[in-house]
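ugh ok fine here u go
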Amino acid sequence: MNQPALSTAGTMEAAEVRRVPQFRFLRRLLRRPVAVGGVLFILIVYMAGILAPLIAPYDFDKADLHNTFAGPTGDHLLGTDRLGRDVFSRLIWSAQTTVIFSVFTVVSGSLILGVSLGLISGYFAGRVDNFLMRAADMLYSVPTLLLVLIINATMVDRVKDLFRDVEDFTGVGGLTRSGIPNLFLLSVALSIFGWVGMARLVRSQVLSLRETDYVLAAKAAGGSTPRILFRHLLPQLTNLMVVAVTYSLGAVALAEITLTFLGIGVEDRPSFGVMIFQYAGPTNVRAHPMLIFAPAIIVALLMLSFNLLGDALTDVLSPRLR
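structure:
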């Protein structure tokens, strides 16, 4: 007697799940094996970075001068480098460097600065828009790499002194030794220039949304400007921001690897760029190929995964496919 009713209820629940936007988005994304593979690889790298202190077999600077350039063994899965440091462990700690740098830079630059300034510029328009966009044009026109190099060279000692003062005041040791001051300075320097792209994207959307009926109704109802910006306009930009943040994470991760390859920024902790630079010579490639191929392959797959995921998100979140 109750079986048909239960079956009908189950069907209605399944239909309700399919109508929820988040479930529709996940279903469309799961139909793309390439995108799923990209997500899994990104999650593996980022989780390895987050859990590095727990899963890395050795510390990143633990050297064994009696076991240099060793091949893969049970104790060292990918062998050791010229100082006897475990290559596999250094890859995991390098992933942590990339995770810390990319997440902090994207959150502070693209999300906080870019989204906020884009909302303000598009909503108020007029003089506010002209001022912010001209500032964006100025930042976009300057050579970013050169300015980051100048900022890093002139400010790194002051930032390290600041972190030493924080260590003395709080009693928390190891901040300076961990290389956090270098990552912090480099991330802030890139955040100063990294908000421009996101701000322009958000501004272009807000300029068209500010005249829609629901925004005009919110104004007529006496809604405050922050409420209109962050309660009514910001949710309409979610799809755009998801795609932009995905590409930004990949771009910032590549920027960190490139800068460390050039010797800018990270000094006291491992990085994929440093590992590639140290063994990029033809002699090392022939004698110890694992030392350069291991980080290079991870970097190539990580960048490919971000690009594939970004392309998939663009298609999945496109209004034409809803």
